[in-house]
Queue: 2 jobs
Job 1
Amino acid sequence: MINTILIFPIIACILMGLIKKKAFDCAMVNVYAVLHFVASCLLACGIGKLGNIPYFTVDNTNIIFLLVLSLVFLMVAFYNSNYIRNLEYEDKKIGHYSFMIMVFVLAMTGTILSSNLGIAWIFVEATTLSSAYLIYFNKTKHSIEAAWKYVFICSIGIALAFVGIIFLNIAQGDINTLDFAQLYKHASAFDPFWLKLAFVFMLFGFGTKMGLAPVHYWLPDAHSEAPSPISALLSATLLNSAFLVIIRVFKVLDIAQCDKWARIMFIIVGFVSLFVTAVFVYHIKNYKRMLAYSSIENMGILAIGTGLGGAALYAVVLHLIGHSLAKASFFLTSGNVLELFETKRIKSINGLMSADNKTAWLWILSFLAICAFPTSILFISEFLIIKTMIMQGHLLLCALFVLLLTIVLWGIAKVVIKMTFGKLSEDKEETVRANKKKFSILMYLPQVIMLLLVFVLGIYIPPFLNSMIILATAGF
């Protein structure tokens, strides 16, 4: 199965380059999405693990990340089918777009499945190169600027991560390996000084891709300027991939009993991420940019939960699942809003409920899901993190955590309410009416499925998923 999901996109990209037809390109993306999801489910059931390509493996930790990537990619691919149909570009440009989606998902899959830190580093760099074109796709002034900022900042981040890998190698002495299993086996013999220094560089290096403040500057521009299906992939899957690599390195420090240092770093960058979001969410003029800052906030929550440890690790995995599904839904719904009103400016949009009530309800429900409104699974995860803080005696941090989350919630709520209700302006009525005719069920169904999962999982987590989450936390 691992061979299949890594090799198929390569073959598909070659065929797409030869056939060069819009319909075929779209079909290949959809086939890969279905294949990826089926293969991931089989791997989760323990089927198809034999005969793996060297340097790639499935374990209790990365299978959760792989399943989230597969499910989000499948939903995005369905939405993308209608999105591509409405694009007024020549087949060649659509071909490049579809080609890069395949490469981007392949790079994220490789990052998640890598059993070697060096290979994971290469695939993280590949995600930058492939997604840069997707951010630049619309070729506007702002998208070009966002793509350059993305490449520049993430290249610095990947360079910092490379320096961290060098320091990790120095810490090993004569052992000299980047295989995660070997790193875990020999971690107790590593030099603590170089190990701690390596973690700092890799936290900020890979943290750049994860969107942690203060190395987050590319994220608001890139997520707001990319096409909506790509924004969903960037926020819901790319950030997770980088987080997994950081978790793998953190495990080495945990075994080497240097985890206290790493936990402090996690909590610091986590609260800085929450603070940055709380400050900037009140000055947002672009609703897609608002969603991007929400991603920074949620990556901060993952970092804080990891730093706390204990029951918060279970909450981290829950939060990762919930955020990925809710944020993907939010970004895809923002694509509907953009298609209807032809603007990203918040002040130019009123009366979404009158324009398209299905999109309006998806917009409201996505907001409730991402802001941890019961029964969202994010309510459970944030509750467990708060409970862990109280049990560990971090009362001041707990108060600050709740305060920052409340500020962010209020900032997003103001925008959602303003855009959803009110009277649709007369100058927008004709535009909205014409654009609504382009919509099909595929513009709504993916969000419905993801939101349904988010709210159902907040009430009932199936035993098999609960077991997977518990097993996944052992890798932290």
Job 2
Amino acid sequence: MSLAESLADTIGPTGITAGSATVAGLARALDGGRLTAADLADFYLARIGRLNPDLHAVITVSPTAAAEASASDERRARDASIGSLDGIPVLIKDNISANGLPATAGSPALQSAAARDAFLVGRLRAAGAVILGKANLSEWANFRSRPSSSGLSTLGGQAVNPHGAGRSPSGSSSGSAAAIAAGLAPLTVGTETDGSIVSPAAACGAVGIKPTLGLISRSGIVPISAAQDTAGPMARTVADAAFLLAAMAGPDADDPATARAATEACDYTAFLRPDALAGARIGVWRQGSKDADRATGAILDSALERLRARGAVLADPVELADIDKVNEPEGMALTHEFKHDINAYLACLGGDHPADLAGLIAFNAGNAAVVFRPFGQEQFEASEATSGDLADPGYLEARGAANRTARSALDGALAGDNLDAVVTLTGHPAWLIDPVLGDSHRWGTSGPAAVAGYPAITVPAGAVSGLPVGLSFIGPAWSEPGLIALAHAFEAAGR
């Protein structure tokens, strides 16, 4: 069965298909009695059971999903629905903890770790969401080995892109993106340090929002770097991503970076204006996709015409000054931060698991026949070789240089032309999975927003030989409302 044929499966008597399901449409069907949350959960659990053996997008399903759905139906029967996502199924990336479902990061080292709701999962439950299960990912969020294969984990196997036989889903939120593309859930949650939401979302034809650092709590998420880590929504439409973002965003006393979210988090669905591009000033960062082939580059030109047709005023091109100087200090800083942050995380994590990064390295070496398939743990070893001390002068210099350069580049472009956003292609079409040599990822544009801690939204913009290509909207910190408006208007212009 082709992807298109599979996505035509209808959800009960609603006429809604796996490929057309939206939060608003499903909520209307639930509220109108044409669908129960129990039937909706059963539909997606059945799809996972049928399609996941080929896709490897899901590591595990939740044994309590059916009960959660039934509880939603009982609330509706009492006219006591509790939130915008009541009864809506959500898959969460398996580096995020949930009750009964430990955050494994795809590794057997964490299979027996304590499993309680991460802060964001608690917020999803408060909005009524049904947690379907855990999405596959690049093991350790692609921070164990270089090279590696995106979407490959010991526990989940190799996730594949539903849009092309043998094509990579990109990563590290590989399963979250592939699950959206294949209609295994209407909503998924990913995480990003640099590219891990926007890159797989673009490669799989999904919408992904990498929010401002601090909008969503990181409590209960396996870390790489507190300086760049964030969770974010992935969905088929900007509207659905906005619903999910609104449910997850907010302050958490255990994550000091979220303090400002108390005043910034809001109902992002209020900004879904199809006319938002009229008069908007948007800069075009062409240099980010300078290595694009002709067919991929043509998608950018087509996207720009769509923006102009809806009234956007383009500054084409804009430059991000010295942005090429970010990668080296970013890499140095992340390698240092991982040791500090993973050690702190493991020290506070209950259950049975290695005590620190050195223990993880020893675990992997002792289970090499299972976990090294076929890649090693060079990134782990490089991180362990650092001091892990966040007061280390060399580390502070690297992190400071990375942050200053990324923020200066984006701030300069945005302020220089009085821009509402910068747009750029998110990355190139999906490459073939190579289980020996690893990823053939040539370029992507996630770095500036990731290092700066600024928001970025990727939206499907076209396809090359059936393989999706995304367009990213990037703005200053806390500009999610404006970016959502622009991305939604761009999406609407393509319908």
